[in-house]
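Hi C.,

You asked whether I'd gotten around to modeling the 53-residue construct. I have! Everything is below, sequence then structure, no commentary in between.
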Amino acid sequence: MIQKKVPYLPGKKLSKDEQTDHAAREILHDEKVAREEKTKRLKAARLKREADQ
């Protein structure tokens, strides 16, 4: 599921729970993207190493 980052809306007041939830979801999304990129990079390196043997 792709989550869209919500732009800052100055007129909209978020409760403390909503702010925390938004921040946590953004952090988790960023970590997931970084993990997937690392997995792709490591898989490519492994396949290259196996092909060289």
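If it helps when you're writing up: DSSP finds one helix and no strands in the chain.

Thanks,
B.
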